[in-house]
Amino acid sequence: MDTTTEAQYHLLRCGIKPSLQRIAIAEYLLGNRIHPTADDIYNALCVKMPTLSKTTVYNTMRLFADQGVVTSLMIDDKNIRFDIDTSCHAHFICCGCNKVLDIPVDESPCLNMKQIGDLRITETHLYYKGYCKTCRSKNVGVVCPESINQ
Amino acid sequence: MDTTTEAQYHLLRCGIKPSLQRIAIAEYLLGNRIHPTADDIYNALCVKMPTLSKTTVYNTMRLFADQGVVTSLMIDDKNIRFDIDTSCHAHFICCGCNKVLDIPVDESPCLNMKQIGDLRITETHLYYKGYCKTCRSKNVGVVCPESINQ
DNA sequence: TTACTAAATTATAATTATTACAAATTTAAA
DNA sequence: TTTAAATTTGTAATAATTATAATTTAGTAA
Question: Which of B14, B108, B119 to substitute to test the interface with A, most A CBs within 10 Å?
Answer without folding.
Answer: B119
